[in-house]
Recover the amino acids of this structure.
């Protein structure tokens, strides 16, 4: 292929317009004369869904490894593992001739009902960002491009093709964008996929602010923005907004729209040229990757299956364990529930993979030599079945322990619509209750792609293992964990609430009249439960092990630091139990005092550490300025405010083991932002404002007290004068006083503004 710049110059407008719309369900338009080959895309994210027929969107796909879905990968908190999975996905994609794999999905889990939560990493933007970077690095190391999706604010499936999201700027910047930002700025994905929904009235596919201003200009994204499949309504408006490639194709009508808009001046040729240049650059990258590594990607299917098994195991979360697990193979065990034999390995929709094989826990337990009896437990169609329950109870009674396998049925967790409730199907709840009543040594094994309400049965069972949508090799991983061949080490990447009514989005989800307002703002997930001091079923970051860990000797590299410095936080982690295990240590930052409201704590670092019994390791986590910063919408930038911060190291968001305090001596320098309407408190919070106002305050307070008929300044007419004045705009205060020179209140404030911030302070201050 010739250089993309030269190719661009040689193209006619018709060719250019044709290039920005797909050629088929999965490919871009080729230009044989210029040596430009089509770029081939496939879903993603947890396996390659390669549909050989380019015209078909949903035909049966070629066999591929079905890795655990994002919820399970995220629960591993293991960036190295996620990188390995990314690389394996890259190898499989390359072997099938796929240039771009459509993933990862990095949208934040705003509500546990989100239909695609199984495909997304976390409720926490930092964790989602770190994992996305690792996943993309791994994938792209194999010469296959990623497509970070769905940009942005696709946090529910209900009305996903039309819903208009209203979100405030801080929540956008601090919660919903950071995972995309980390992915784009650090991992440099080949493509970013826009979301279907609207944001602030505009479709994401036609959103100049998101696509052009934020993604391309602010973050410097040099790849290709591709539409979600069918997300474009007005192709010309989308090109103008920065949407480079529309998929799928062909859409001759949309090509014509672009030509018409060029002809009548609605679309500038430079905008089309930019989109074409980006398509050509990715085509070139793909071609180079294909040429450089021909045949290098012979896939070792068995090795990938083993990796899928390791990943499934690493992400399983032992939610509860009152001395029941692990079990031993020499005691009779009742295995109840059809998902022991027919496991749920993934969710529904475009991510569905045609697995190369599927392991089930039943066979894997038998292979380990377990003495088992089986009962189906619940009917496939979930109708109540007293007979199946009776059989299950009999099996449980005859054994020394019971494992009850339950799962959210496949179609309940899918792209395109949301879950309607948090609970398990009634037939499964009834089964758990009946078995637990007959056999006190009962463990529940749960396959779901997200949080489940367990209140009806949790207290009656001693153990619960969350195995997620665990991928094709999950059955083997389950057997190993249940029998203690491996200690569970996953931790929740999302809070399990007690009830749906407790969740932060409860009152505003799913929206009405086509709109959803993210009223909870920044307070998503644990940020909300922390702030409300609200109990949850299982907190963010929670997960048990067969061993125990001690956290000791926290040390911070600097007690006091400046904006621009990095801080190393280190501590010792010891395996204090009898078996080997891995611990996910988490570092949260709490801002002691802040001008803008902040969540009580936020995750800013973590490490997964494997330790033999008795072994100790020193863990070091690095923080940078962003770890301490909030986004200030007034200044339109990230601000780390001078002052004290507390560093909290723990085994979960509610199990903090170590604390340290550090001081940011000099925070982010901000431009002078006081205005005529600024309050006294704001004047005093600004160093320059304080310098000019403070000398005047004494006389002003005296004057006020006098005017209010009190000699005692602090008790003027029964009120606290300081509190009365603090949040009053300076201009209102001056309004009470005639200046000696006869200046108006506004002129007095302007004079101070000029003295504090320079001649043009008042005009320069942002609105
Ligand atoms: C989904 C995307 C997917 C695309 C292609 C869309 O419906 O939202 O995640 O990559 O289809 O299958």
């Amino acid at each position: 292929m010739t250089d993309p710049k030269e190719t661009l110059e040689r193209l006619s407008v018709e060719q250019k317009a044709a290039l920005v719309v797909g050629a088929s369900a999965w490919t871009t338009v080729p230009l044989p004369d210029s040596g430009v080959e089509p770029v081939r895309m496939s879903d993603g994210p947890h396996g390659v869904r390669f549909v050989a027929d380019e015209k078909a969107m949903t035909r049966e796909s070629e066999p591929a490894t079905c890795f655990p879905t994002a919820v399970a990968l995220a629960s591993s908190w293991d960036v190295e593992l996620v990188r390995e999975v990314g690389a394996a996905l890259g190898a499989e994609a390359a072997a099938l001739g796929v240039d771009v794999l459509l993933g990862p999905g990095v949208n934040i889990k705003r509500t546990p009902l989100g239909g695609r939560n199984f495909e997304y990493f976390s409720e926490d933007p930092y964790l989602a960002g770190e994992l996305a970077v690792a996943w993309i690095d791994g994938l792209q190391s194999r010469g296959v491009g990623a497509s970070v999706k769905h940009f942005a604010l696709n946090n529910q499936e209900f009305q996903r093709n039309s819903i208009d999201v209203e979100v405030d700027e801080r929540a956008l910047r601090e919660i919903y964008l950071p995972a995309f930002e980390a992915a784009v700025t650090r991992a440099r994905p080949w493509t970013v996929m826009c979301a279907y929904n609207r944001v602030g009235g505009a479709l994401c596919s036609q959103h100049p602010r998101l696509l052009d201003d934020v993604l391309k200009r602010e973050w410097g994204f040099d790849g290709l923005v591709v539409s979600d499949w069918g997300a474009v309504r007005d192709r010309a408006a989308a090109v103008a907004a920065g949407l480079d490639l529309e998929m799928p194709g062909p859409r001759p009508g949309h090509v014509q729209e672009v030509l018409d808009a060029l002809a009548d001046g609605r679309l500038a040729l430079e905008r089309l040229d930019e989109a074409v240049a980006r398509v050509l650059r990715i085509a070139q990258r793909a071609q180079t990757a294909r040429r450089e590594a021909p045949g290098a990607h012979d896939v070792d299917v068995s090795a990938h299956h083993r990796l899928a098994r390791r990943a499934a195991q690493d992400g399983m979360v032992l939610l509860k364990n009152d001395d029941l697990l692990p079990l031993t193979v020499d005691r009779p065990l009742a295995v109840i529930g059809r998902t022991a034999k027919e496991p749920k390995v993934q969710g529904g929709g475009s991510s569905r993979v045609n697995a190369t094989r599927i392991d089930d826990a039943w066979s894997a337990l038998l292979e380990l030599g377990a003495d088992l009896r089986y009962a189906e437990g619940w009917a496939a169609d979930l109708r109540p079945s007293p007979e199946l329950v009776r059989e299950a109870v009999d099996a449980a009674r005859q054994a020394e322990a019971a494992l009850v396998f339950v799962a959210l049925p496949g179609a309940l967790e899918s792209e395109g619509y949301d879950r309607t409730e948090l609970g398990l199907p009634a037939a499964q709840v009834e089964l758990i209750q009946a078995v637990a009543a007959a056999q006190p040594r009962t463990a529940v094994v749960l396959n779901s792609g997200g949080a489940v309400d367990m209140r009806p049965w949790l207290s009656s069972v001693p153990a619960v293992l969350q195995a997620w949508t665990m991928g094709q090799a999950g059955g083997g991983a389950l057997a190993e964990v249940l029998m203690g061949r491996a200690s569970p080490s996953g931790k929740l990447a999302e809070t399990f609430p007690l009830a749906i009514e407790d969740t932060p989005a409860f009152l505003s989800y799913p929206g009405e009249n086509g709109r959803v307002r993210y009223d909870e703002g920044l307070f998503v997930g644990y940020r909300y439960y922390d702030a409300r001091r609200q109990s949850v079923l299982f907190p963010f970051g929670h997960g048990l092990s067969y061993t125990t860990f001690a956290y000791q000797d926290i040390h911070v590299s600097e007690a006091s630091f400046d904006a621009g410095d990095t801080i190393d936080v280190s501590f010792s982690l010891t395996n204090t139990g009898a078996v080997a295990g891995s611990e996910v240590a988490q570092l949260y930052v709490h801002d002691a005092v802040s001008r803008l409201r902040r969540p009580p704590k936020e995750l800013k670092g973590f490490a997964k550490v494997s330790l033999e019994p008795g072994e100790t390791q020193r863990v070091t986590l690095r923080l940078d300025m962003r770890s301490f910063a909030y986004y200030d919408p007034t200044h339109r930038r990230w601000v780390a405010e001078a002052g004290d911060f507390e560093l909290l190291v723990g085994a979960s968001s509610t199990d903090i083991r170590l604390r340290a305090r550090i001081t940011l001596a000099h925070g982010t320098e901000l431009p002078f932002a006081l205005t005529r309407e600024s309050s006294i408190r704001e004047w005093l919070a600004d160093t320059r404002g304080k310098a000019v106002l403070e000398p005047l305050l004494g006389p002003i307070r005296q004057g006020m007290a006098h005017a209010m008929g009190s000699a005692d300044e602090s008790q003027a007419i029964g009120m606290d004068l300081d509190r009365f004045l603090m949040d009053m705009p300076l201009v209102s205060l001056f309004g009470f006083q005639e200046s000696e020179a006869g200046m108006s209140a506004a002129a007095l404030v302007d004079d101070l503004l000029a003295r504090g911030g320079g001649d043009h302070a008042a005009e320069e201050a942002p609105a």
